[in-house]
Specification:
about 150 residues; Putative glyoxalase superfamily protein PhnB; Glyas_Bleomycin-R_OHBP_Dase; VOC_core
Length: about 150
C-alpha cells in the first residue's frame, strides 16, 4: 500500500547567495572549495554567476545586492550592511571527509568560525565564513566520520 498522492515531484534547483564581489566569491567557491562554475553571464550591467558542488544537482547563484532589479538604493545598502555582518545567508553542506575539508579551507586562508566537533545530533561539523561574511557549515554523518578514523 502506498501513501497519499502529493502531486508532482518538486526539487530545489537554485539557491541564491548574496555576495559583495563575484570575483572574490569565485576565488572561494571555485578555487578553494572546488565547485564548478556552471554559468558566468554578463547582461545589461548585471552578472549571473552560478556554482555547483561536485556531484550536486543544485546551483548556487552568487548575486550582489546591486544586481537586484526591484530593490531601491536604500534596500541595496541595507542588504550590503547585513551581508558585512554575516547576517544575510547561511548554508549547510554535507561532505564525505569533514576533517580533510577543514584542513584544506584552513590552509587556504578561509575564516574558520568553529573547529570540527562531534555534535549530539549525529554529525561532525565545522563552520566557516565566505569572503562576503556568509556563514557556512560543513558536516558529515558521525558513522561515516568514525569509519574514516
Amino acid at each position: 500500500m502506498s501513501g497519499p498522492s502529493v502531486g508532482p515531484m518538486v526539487t530545489v534547483s537554485n539557491v541564491l547567495l548574496t555576495v559583495h564581489d563575484h570575483d572574490e566569491a569565485l576565488e572561494f567557491y571555485r578555487d578553494l572549495l572546488g565547485f564548478a562554475v556552471t554559468q558566468d553571464v554578463s547582461y545589461e550591467g548585471m552578472r549571473w554567476v552560478t556554482v555547483t558542488p561536485p556531484g550536486a544537482d543544485v546551483h548556487i547563484v552568487l548575486e550582489t545586492p546591486q544586481s537586484w532589479p526591484d530593490a531601491s538604493p536604500a534596500d541595496r545598502e541595507a542588504a550590503a550592511d547585513l551581508l558585512a555582518k554575516g547576517l544575510m545567508s547561511r548554508l549547510v553542506f554535507t561532505t564525505d571527509d569533514v576533517d580533510a575539508l577543514h584542513d584544506r579551507l584552513s590552509a587556504g586562508g578561509a575564516e574558520i568560525t568553529s573547529e570540527p566537533v562531534d555534535q549530539q545530533y549525529g554529525v561532525r561539523d565545522f563552520g566557516v565564513r565566505d569572503p562576503s561574511g556568509n556563514q557556512l557549515r560543513f558536516n558529515q554523518p558521525l558513522a561515516a566520520a568514525a569509519s574514516r578514523s
